[in-house]
Design a protein that fits this description.
mainly alpha, 81% helix
């Protein structure tokens, strides 16, 4: 169950990170509320995962999921520049996440 909580917390990290852009400095109510709720829930699920997973693994995977998700969202939705090096770097983060999962009991 800890791994599922970690995955949920990583996805919620993506939600709140992207949500920050839509808040316009927390000046827009609805996006701000969604962002804060996603932040709180992300930390709740991360804390739950940390009950059994090592912090070195859980935190790295949590931030990795968020980084990959936000980078992908930025490319697809915000039309941020993309090149081969950026894709390779994102793939390396994914490889790191998979590697940490495989090597952790």
């Amino acid at each position: 169950m800890a791994w599922i909580h970690l995955l949920i917390s990583g996805v919620l990290e993506c939600v709140w990170a992207v949500g920050l852009k839509y808040t316009h400095g927390f000046s827009r109510l609805f996006p701000s509320v969604i962002t804060v709720i996603a932040m709180v829930l992300s930390f709740v699920f991360l804390a739950s995962a940390l009950k059994t997973l090592p912090i070195s693994v859980a935190y790295a995977i949590w931030t990795g999921i968020g980084a990959v998700c936000v980078a992908t969202y930025g490319i697809l939705i915000f039309h941020e520049p993309v090149n081969v090096i950026k894709i390779v770097c994102i793939a390396l983060i994914v490889a790191g996440i998979i590697g940490l999962k495989i090597t952790t009991a």
